[in-house]
Amino acid sequence: MKKIMPWVRSLLVFALIAVIVFGNAHEALARRGGGRIGGGSFRAPTRSVPVSPSRGGGGYYGGGYSSGGGFFFLPFFFGGGGFGGSIFTFLILAAVAGAVLQAFRGAGSSDSEGITGLDSKVTVAKIQVGLLASARELQNDLTRLAMDSDTSSSEGLSLILKETVLSLVRHPEYWVYVSSAKETTKFALAEQKFNGLVMSERSKLNAEVLSNKNGRILQSSKAAGTLPSSGDLSLEDPSEYIVITLMAAVAGDTLGKLPEIRSSEQLKQTLSALGSVTQDQLLAIEVLWEPQSTDYTLTSDEVLTVYPDLVRI
């Protein structure tokens, strides 16, 4: 029995150490666990090839419209006289007018915010906001969006963008840190740029305890629900924070013209611009927030270590 007792003591010591180590690891996982909502599509638009209508027989072809919207003409041949000349002059003027109209149409389409081809402009943008831990409502809002949103449809993704922007705009008193980045690129490269940005930000999370991506919801046992409305949240330690990261790929270069965010006013301006993005313009969106659980917050050291680009506003 005396020989067995040392082994029993050793096993108990090892078991106690394992409980402490793995228990703390589990706690750390929950503390740094984040949430994720997103989806999108970078499908290029399809274009149909116009088919020229067949023409039957006849003595001549008159003026008309081409499939591209411009005028074409073939001269009429009449047997002399001023009447034939005036018709010929009229056709020339009609052709010139059609060419001018087509030029205006082309200029208008080149400045549009839609995707018309692989060379169309797309802006990939990121806004990251560090908020006081008192902003529990934002964690609750994002958790509800993750549980209820349809991330497989363009309507659902547009709703996520607008609701996330609205939650941030409603509480400027919680804004402490901010970081922004943007790049305007061709549509052919936009998906690669966006995915690279998303992967870079996701890698900063220890775990994603709640995720709703392209219609698929994944929830860890450590994911928290919404916080009850009762209770005084104003007594939070002001050195504790929540970080929300909003990334979007938007057709056009309007967002690319916004300044880098260095003040509360610039943050408000950029959020307003994002909130006005239409459903047709939005190609993809990703929202990350940390911690996901309302039971945890990030310390100032954690925020500045994990998110070194954040600056105080």
From TrEMBL:
The chain crosses the membrane at residues 72-101. It holds the Pfam family DUF1517. The keyword Transmembrane applies. The keyword Transmembrane helix applies. It comes from the Bacteria. Keywords: Membrane, Transmembrane, Transmembrane helix. InterPro entries: DUF1517, FLAP_modulator. This is DUF1517 domain-containing protein.
